[in-house]
Automatic annotation (TrEMBL):
GO MF term (any one): transaminase activity
InterPro entries on file: 6-hairpin_glycosidase_sf, 6hp_glycosidase-like_sf, GDE_N_bis, MGH1-like_GH
A single GO BP: carbohydrate metabolic process
Descriptive protein name: Aminotransferase
Keyword Transferase: yes
Pfam family for this entry, one: MGH1-like_GH
Taxonomy, superkingdom: Bacteria
Domain Mannosylglycerate hydrolase MGH1-like glycoside hydrolase: 437-599
UniProt keywords, alphabetically: Aminotransferase, Transferase
Amino acid sequence: MTDRHHLLVHGGTFACVGDGGDISGVRGSGSPDGLFVRDARHLSRWQLTADGAVPESLTPVADGDTARCVLVPRGGRQEPPAYTIFREQAVGESAFVESLRLTSNRPVPTTVRIAVTADADFTDQFELRSDHRTYTKAGAHRSRQVRDDGVEFHYRRGDWTSRTTVTAEPAPDGVEETGTGARRLVWSLDLAPHGTAELALRVAARPHGVDREPPVPASPTAAGDQLHALEGEFVEGVAFPTGWPELAAACARGLADLAALQVPAKGPDGEELRVPAGGAPWFLALLGRDALLTSLFALPYRPSLAAATLPALAAAQATETGRDAVAQPGKIVHEVRHGELAHFGQVPYGRYYGSVDATPLFLVLLGAYVERTGDTAMARRLEPHARAAIGWMLDHGGLTSCGYLVYRADQGGLANQNWKDSPGAICSADGSRTHGPVLAAGAQGYAYDALRRTAQLARAVWGDEVYAALLEQAAGDLRDRFQRDFWMRDREFPALALDGEGRQVDALASDAGHLLWSGLLDKEYGEAVGRRLLEPDFFSGWGVRTLAAGQPAYHPLSYHRGSVWPHDNALIALGLSRYGLHDEARTVANALIDAAMTTGHRLPEVLAGYDRATCPEPVPYPHACARESRSAAAPLALLTAVGGV
C-alpha cells in the first residue's frame, strides 16, 4: 500500500492507520484512510495528542493483524522523553479497539494530558476513489451525542441510518468540541515515579441494515486472539509440502489471509454464510468471479469455501432482466455492495451483473466441488440455478446466436466484463481499443468447461441423459469453432478476443493460459501456447505478464497491459500441468513463491511487469489491494499444479 498506511482486516471490517496509529481522513491518498464497515467509513479521524502535540514514533506500526507502535513526546537529545506511550490497535467484526499504556521515565510524579480526536463522516467508499466523481446527498444529516463514557456519532439520509459509538475506560474527563464536527476526548493522567497508566478505547460501528449491536472485543489482544483462532482453523489439517518450505509458508500465509477475508452473505433459504471477499481495502465485498476462483484454488484443501460460495451466488442469481439489461435471467452476480450510494442507486453495484465469466465459473465450481467432495445434495439443491446459468449462456450470453459468450460495454458500469475489466484492457497489439461487442478468449474456455462439467452432473446426479448429450454437443462445437476463429496462424497463438465483426484482437496476452486450464485447446496447440508463455517477452522472472513485452500496448505499470497477476499465473500453472508441461509449471510456481518470500510470504493482488534481471526484487503495482482472496489462494493452486515437489 502507498502513503504508509497499515491495513487491519477482520471479516467485513477493515481499518487503515498511519505509522503512529492515527487516522487523518485525508482524501485522495493511495488507500482509504479510516475504519470501514459495509462500504461506509465509521471513523474518519482518530488522532492522538499528548500534552497538546502529536507524539513522535520511536517504533512505527508494522504490518500485521495488530497495529503496535511506541510513541514519545517530541524533544531533543538534551531533554529525554518524560514518558513513553505504547499504543496497540486491532479490529473485530464492526469494531475497532485500542489500548494506550503510558509509562513514566522520571523519578518524580508526572501529569500527562492525553487527547483523542474522533470523528465519523460515514463517507461511502466509492466517494474516496481517485476518479474525481462527486455524489449529491440531499437531506443527509450528521449529529453527535456526548455520553458519560465517550461520544456517539449518527448519520441519517432518508431511510438510511448509521451509527458509531466511541467509549473509553476510564471515562474521559471531558468531551470537547473542535469546531469541525469532530469531538476530542481528554484525560489528565497522573503517573507515579516510573509508574504506568492505561486507557482502553472501543469503537462500535452500527452500519445500515444491521439490527444488532456488535460484540466489541475487550482489547486488541482479545481481538487478535479471535482472529488467530480463526486463522488456525483454516490452516489446521492442510498437508503442506515438506520438500518446499517456501511454498508451504506461502500456503499457510494465504490460508490465514483467507480466514480474515471472509464476509457475510446469505444463501437461497436465508441461511447465514461466510464467503471470500474480493480483497482489501477496495473490494471487501462479495465479487462473483473472485469468490469462485478463490474457492476453486482452495477446493482440494478447504472445500468449505466452495460450499458457502455456491449457495451465496445462487441466492444472488438474476431472475429477470434489469432496466439496464446487465442483469438477465440466470446470470451470476459480479458484485454485491451494501453502501449508501448503492442503496440509493447512485452507483450500480448494489447487485451488479456486469461479468461475462462469473456464470460459467459458477458451473465450473459446482461441477468441480461435487466431483471432489461427492456432495450430490448440493448438485440437486442447485440444479435449478445451474440450469438457469446454462440457459443464460446459451441465450442472453450469446452461445446460440453468436457462437460465443459476448459482452458489451456498460455505460455507468464496466467497459470490459471479463477478468481484465479495466478500460482499454482488451486491445490490439498496437494498443488500439476494441469497441462494440467483445468475445473474450478466456471466457470461451470457461464456457467450454462449464458445459462439460454440467453435462456430467446432468448424467450422474440429475438423471437427464438428453440434457447431458445436448451440453456435450454444445461443448464440442464451441471447441471446434474456437480453434478455427481465434487461432492466429501467423503467430501460432490465440487472439485475446474477437470483435463484433469476428475480427481477431491480436494482442499476445496471458489469457491464453486460461485456455490451458479449461482444456479448450487441442494438445498440439496447448503445448505450443504453454511454451510460448515462458519466453522472455511474456515471462518476467516473477511471473507471466498479462501482455507480452515488445508490443506497443505493453506497459509494465498498467493494470492489465503488462503487469503480473498471481491468480492469473496460478491458472496458467494449473493449465501447464494439465497439458503435461510440468517443468514450465514449476518455473511459474518458483517465480511466484520467490516473489512471495520478499513480502512475508504474502502475494499481492498484482505486481509490475519489470524483468527480474534488472529488478532483483519485485516492483509493487502502486494501487494494488494489499490482501486479495485470489492471490491468497494462489499458492494452493500452485501446490496442486506442482505437487509440492
